[in-house]
């Protein structure tokens, strides 16, 4: 009798699945937004992972789903969380400029990223966030952002790079370890007033930032989807590693903050930390948000947003130069005609180098380091391209879908700098998004643009990048929360024309 009961239950389950199957395959509706059916517990996680593996990253997976549902806006359930993904310029542009979407979600991922502190510039929101962001922009301007003083700091780092390369005599090497110390030191000098002279300390900080980025790429998404997994499997989920790296980073930066507290003299603020201490001690004070924890998170935001993205952007540019020797030759010809041998590039050279500018733009178009930006949180009920967006909805924006739209860029997957050249002049496309937009536009944009231009042109003016004989180069990036080139080597040869 028991066996027959089991058979009956199984038969009922099969019939139920058959009956419901058409409904299971219908798009779900998150405020009438189309998307795949969310299965219990996992939601759409398995589908997204399969598409990521098939197409090479989350940004491509989301674009394929957008095509499947014939909609620039799709609804996904990742674990227990509903997420709206927006493709295409129209929807993304609205989110970037509309204050309704200025907020951030506060989930397990953002808590870990912010060390449990709802502070800083990147993952914060509200009146204190606006106060801190305005303060930071003013301070960066006072410290020379966009002026000769900032260019001089970058050029000083360029001199060190060129001296190191000359001492090595070129040869086979990786470009990332060459430029990463320069980028870190530029930001460090802005924050602390001096560069990291201790090589061991510098390498530790670089390794710390790299380990943190890799750990978030591996574990960040999983912890956001299944926050409870940190209790069940703290080690295998990556949670334990993230907490360890976070603590290391906090100790490293707090050591510098405490040194500045000992040497602080009112009226003699020459770096970002001293400027913050002035506000904390003698300005608006902790009541306005100027606390030690706030300073810690602002520094973390600066280094996370500035160091990794700028270094990886340059790494992609050098990779494309090695892959496209014909393009590199044109870059050399233009640089040689504007910058005499032995002279360092300067910002005033930029308008005179339209082809080089187009090369840098094309590299960033194809390989923007953050192809998915966000997350954002809707502050109120609203609409987006005719769809209802409920208050509290988490939103991701697919920048890759804009940069590879065939309606705006012919042969979008082809590296073609000439697309930004019109009558011998560099003309950037209006739909390119490299630094976000609106109230959350990257405050370090000026520094990043200057660093990329001066370091790229400075190295390219002095060296040729050739493929290593017998080794193939692959332009496909490593997927993750951010993308980066697969580790590669180049043959560096002096260019002294």
From TrEMBL:
Q: What PROSITE patterns has UniProt attached to this entry?
A: CYTOCHROME_P450 (PS00086)
Residues involved in heme binding: 442
Q: Name one GO biological process term.
A: organic acid metabolic process
Q: Which UniProt keywords apply?
A: Endoplasmic reticulum, Heme, Iron, Membrane, Metal-binding, Microsome, Monooxygenase, Oxidoreductase
Cite the Gene3D superfamilies for this sequence.
Answer: Cytochrome P450
User: The organism sits in which domain of life?
Assistant: Eukaryota
A Pfam family in this protein? Answer: p450
Q: Name one GO molecular function term.
A: iron ion binding
Q: Which subcellular locations apply to this protein?
A: Endoplasmic reticulum membrane; Microsome membrane
Membrane topology note: Peripheral membrane protein
The UniProt record lists the keyword Glycoprotein: no
What the entry lists under InterPro entries is as follows:
Cyt_P450, Cyt_P450_CS, Cyt_P450_E_grp-I, Cyt_P450_sf, Cytochrome_P450_fam2
One Gene Ontology term, aspect cellular component: endoplasmic reticulum membrane
Function text = May be involved in the metabolism of insect hormones and in the breakdown of synthetic insecticides.
User: Which protein family is it in?
Assistant: Belongs to the cytochrome P450 family.
Q: What is this protein called?
A: Cyp305a1_0 protein
